Amino acid sequence: SGQELEALAPPPVEFEALIPDGIGPGETFAVNGPHGRIEVEAPFDSQPGAPVKYRLAPPPEFRIEVPPNHKPGDKVKFTREDGIEVSVPVPEGMSPGESFDVTPPALMIRVPEGARPGSVLVCHLSGAPVGDSRFDRIRAVVPDGVMPGRYFAARLPAPPMR
Q: Which of 42, 47, 80, 84 is most buried (CB neighbours < 10 A)?
């Protein structure tokens, strides 16, 4: 239709929920997410009444092993398949030989009512760096299989080359 719809886009976030009585492993239930009720799946090792951490974020893009002589806060550099060099800090509590996941720079976009796969969404970002026009308005297309009320990851634009 060519019409753009407004969408909500939080940065990746973690939240905790209690598994309700009567919900078994692999079953879905509703919890309060960053923009209201969302459906999550009970982990296969969960028990009713147990707290579970959920992460509303894109899947990790890389798994990095902490190199020798590196400590938390030190930068680890690597080159992506597309030739772009990336630098990430070693997370707190990590030691050489241990591995950690690297998540791509992305937003989690909630599909609004009335949208369907192929719809163009426009997100205005709160908390974006002031003066960085990459974050004024992000456009993303709803992927196949993602229905209203669900989230999908949209990669952020690359920073300008210096």
A: 42
Rounded CA separation 108/13 (Å): 9
Q: What is the pLDDT of residues 59-100, one digit of tens each?
A: 888 899 999 999 999 999 988 888 888 889 999 999 999 999
Maximum distance among all alpha carbons in the chain?
56
Tell me the C-alpha distance between 58 and 26, whole Å: 20
Q: What are 120's strand-pairing partners?
A: 4, 141
Give the CA angle between residues 6, 8, 120 to the nearest 5°.
40
Query: What pLDDT, on a 0 to 100 scale, did the predictor assign at position 138?
Result: 80
Mean pLDDT computed over every residue of the chain: 84
Whether 88 and 124 have beta carbons less than 8 Å apart is answered as no
